[in-house]
Amino acid sequence: MKLHRLEVEGFGPFRDRQIVDFDSFADDGIFLIAGKTGAGKSSILDAVCFALYGGVPRYEGGEKRLRSDHCQPDDVTQVVVEFSTPAGRYRVTRSPEYERPKKRGGGTTVQAAGVQLDVLVGGEWIGLAAREREAAFELDDILQLSREQFLQVILLAQNRFSEFLLAGSRERQALLRRLFGTERFEDVQARFEERRKAAEAELGARLATVTARLDEGERVVANAELAGDAVDAVGAEVQSDTQPRITATTEERLEELRRAKARADYRAERRAAERVEAEKRSADADEALAALRDEQRAQAERNRARAALDRLDAEEPRIAEARAELHDARAAEALRSPIAAATRAATAFDAARQTTDRARAAWDVHGIDTDDLASWAAERTRQTGAWQRAAELERMAPALERELAAAAEAVAVAAARIESAETERAALPGRLDELTRERDEARRMADRAPDLLAALEVARARRAAAGEVERLTADRAEAEQVLAEASSALASMQTALARLRQRRLDGFAGELATTLRDDDPCPVCGAREHPAPAVHSDPVSADDVDAVEADRDRAAALEREASEVVSTLRAQLAAAVTRADGRDVDTAEDELAGAAEEHRTSTAASTRVAELERQRDAVLDRLRELDRDHERDLSALTSARETHAVLTQRRADADTAIAEARGSYGSVAERVAAAANEVESALALAEAVAEQERRHEAARTTADELAAAIESSGFDDADAAQAALRTDAARTALEARITEHSVQREKERAILLDLELRTLPEEPIDLAPAEEQSRLARQLWSAAGDEAGRAVAVAEQITALIDSAAAEHERTAAEAVDFEILRGLADAISGRGANTRKMTLETFVLAAELEEIVDAANRRLGDMSAGRYQLRHSDALAARGAASGLGIVVFDAFTGQTRPAQSLSGGETFLSSLALALGLAEVVTARAGGIRLDTLFIDEGFGSLDGDTLDVAMRTLDELRQGGRTVGVISHVEAMQEQIPAQLAVRATPNGPSVIEAR
């Protein structure tokens, strides 16, 4: 990689654009970047690093003050770097984030950071990337160096030069890790450690499981009292006299449990045999109890059968009476029908006679004498038919009267409606004309509504603007006062800062003099004698300047804010005055009230127009409706008059017919009702006489039939037969009673016969002794069963625990072997155990890299130290067990001993650091793909070197020029200025900003 051109503007101490042409130093091969302390020499390297990587080494841990403090608000901050690699020539343009004035309005806004990457193709720059992320990806591809690697191999920045040599193992490891990217080995170490912990936890869990199961098995054995060594012939356990071994192994404990299992199996077999024996004894006792209970039930049944038979024999007389009653009832049942028929016929004859007497009494009331009732009734019925029509007319007479009155009313109503309509129609034309005039007037008023609304909006805007003018006038006066105070404060702060900076410049010599020590070289001239150091009478530190600058910046920010507020208020006030059109608040308020009133009137007129239109349409509709109704009302009047005439004629005809049919009665209906009553009485009497004759004949016939039936039966008369009759339910009950008695008597005899043959004792049988014997036998069986179940459960539990513990123990043994292998490997790569050097895997890899770096450094350090010094990699164990493997010691050929690098003098440290830095650059370059480094910068204090050492350093730098490489050295040492003719001078101008000049 080779740098060609650098452009810096508004960056660090550089306000105006500064251009550095690195190609102009290609022929010299080495150039010096010179200037006074604080002028900005290192800022050139900062600009290169910022352009390529977007960051500056010196500001990594603090505020990134990349923009020049000398910039005005409108100034641009930008860095442009042109460089080339074997892939081509590129240009990077980068700007940091900073504040700038807004393009519209007052105040400031944040200018976002920006980057542009271009490639030179055919003499023209072609854009590759314009976004931060895209540019970073492209630059990674092109440079093939991370920022840490770049700072270590190309740009040896201030405060980093000797860091690698003097660092401790931990700090050196962090630096090498960043350069060589060995974090993956630390990840490998972490993953192995995690695997070791997981395997250790899993193995511990399995061991704990085995122990827990063995403990549980021994607890079960102890609780079951199975700890003996043998069992005698009858099954009694003999307890062991030996005490349990406290430190028994897992195998010994398993063997002891297996012996206990054998005893548990033997106990389970014995308990099972005892349970079978107890079960047999319980079954025999239950069988004996069941037989005795059966005899007790038979004894009770025998006694019951005897009692039941005695009771049935006692009921025999009543059963005989029931048999006789049933016989008479069956004989009388044959006479039931004749008796019932004779009784019904006699009853019907008496009822018919009574009905005839009542009908005759009712007929005699009318006083009519006739021999043929049927003929008289037929004649009177015919006469009644003629009177029915007149009776109907008489009934309808009131309705006819109402219809006649309604017809007269309809005639009067139709005539009145015609008269009213004529009166209303005569008044409507005048009303129509009046509504038309009102509508036209309201419409003219409503048509002004849009103009009045516009006038109202204008009045409202003027009123609001007038109020805003008053408010903004007061705000502007207040803001102008604040601006005047802020401007005055800023001017005071600018004056104080200028004076403080001058005092700081005036006191630089005195400040440097306070740091001088006898025999120490002067950082300006390099002399070790200081005969007349300057006096630091007015000390001003950089912190004092920074504090005042911060105050100045805050005052400037307040002044800018106040200025923006005033500008904004002035613009707002001018706009408000224009909108108010010269009106004050009172005038604008009056105009607004008048415009609002006129607009309300116009709006109301619009509503009034619609209402008047509706009323006018209603009048027109009414005129048309009256015209239609007039024809309808004339037709209705004619029809009503015709209906009235017809009804009048009908009433006259009805009156004539009613008078003829009424006769001497009060009404036709009364005469018809009287005739109907007479006809009904005549017909009822004729029917009653005929019915009486029929009933008399039937009674005589049934009486003869009953007498003949009784004569052939065994009863004396009809009353005796009636007394013997029974209902079907009574006869069925008698039959059931007789049958049940007979069946029950035979049943009880059969039961008693069988029981008497069993020769049962007469005394009651006692079950208590047999029940007690059965209960005791069952309890013994249950207890034996429980004991057998517990013995089997204990044996099974011990078996399960032994099998589980043995299986887990086998798996644990296999896993323990694997764990020991894994633990040994994890300890080895983590610097534990047999790894006596305490070197981790990453440290081991970095140690190999460090050995190559030391070898590369020694190729230069031998020449630079005249063969006296060599750097050596040390893997000695650090104190107090700290990590080791990345130590660097210095071998002194004069003494033949090694010593720490911290023991070197300032010049020796510089040469060793330079050799180590160059060796590190070579190794990092090789690891980055063997890229070619055509530009190299060294920013370090050469002022600490004496003349001879400085000559050695210069020879080393001359060697670096070989192969066309360009080396840039930053220093203010005058001797170097004399030896290096090609120079870039960085000079601070009197007003503050720095400039870069090529010599």
Describe the model.
This protein has 999 residues and is of the alpha+beta class. Helix content is 67%, strand content 10%. The strands form five sheets. Strands 2-1-4-5-8-9 form a six-stranded antiparallel sheet, with helices on one face. Strands 10-16-17-3-18-19 form a six-stranded mixed sheet, sandwiched between helices. A hairpin with a 2-residue loop joins strand 8 (114-121) and strand 9. Helix 6 (183-223) runs antiparallel to helix 18, helix 7 (250-314) packs antiparallel against helix 18 and helix 11 (449-506) runs antiparallel to helix 13. The protein is flat and about 190 Å long. The chain starts with a strand and ends with a strand. Residues 229-245 have low confidence and may be disordered.
Task: For the record, give the distance between the C-alpha atoms at the N and C termini, rounded to a whole number.
Answer: 25 Å
Low-confidence stretches: 229-245
Based on secondary structure, the structural category is: alpha+beta
Structure annotation, total helices? 22
Number of strands: 19
Strand content: 5-15%
